Amino acid sequence: MEADRKQQIDRPAKKLREGESTSCENLTPAEQIPLGQRMSIRLVEQEKKLFEFLLAVVNRHGQNTILRVAGGWVRDKLLGMSCKDIDIALDNVMGQQFAEQVHAYMRDNGMADQVKSVGVIKSNPDQSKHLETATTQVLGSWIDFVNLRKETYADSRIPTMEIGTPLEDALRRDLTINSLFYNINEGKVEDFTENGLRDLQKGIIRTPLDPHVTLTDDPLRALRAVRFACRFGFNVCSQLQAALGDPSVHAALHDKVSRERILTELDGMLRGPRPAAAMHMLHEHNLLKIVFDDSGCMHDSCRDWQAKVMALVDKAEGNTWKGWSAPLEKNEVSMSEDEHLRRAKRLGCLTCCTWAFQTFPSPDPKAARKGETLAGHSLRVGLKSRMKDVDAVTAIHKGVHIFRNCQRPFTRLSLGSAIRSSGSLWQTCVALGKLEDELELGEGQGGGEFWEEIELKAREWNLEDVWSMKGLLNGKEVGAITGAKGPELGQWTKRLIDWQIESGSCAIGEAEAFLREKTQEQD
Question: What pTM was computed for the model?
Answer without folding.
Answer: 0.85
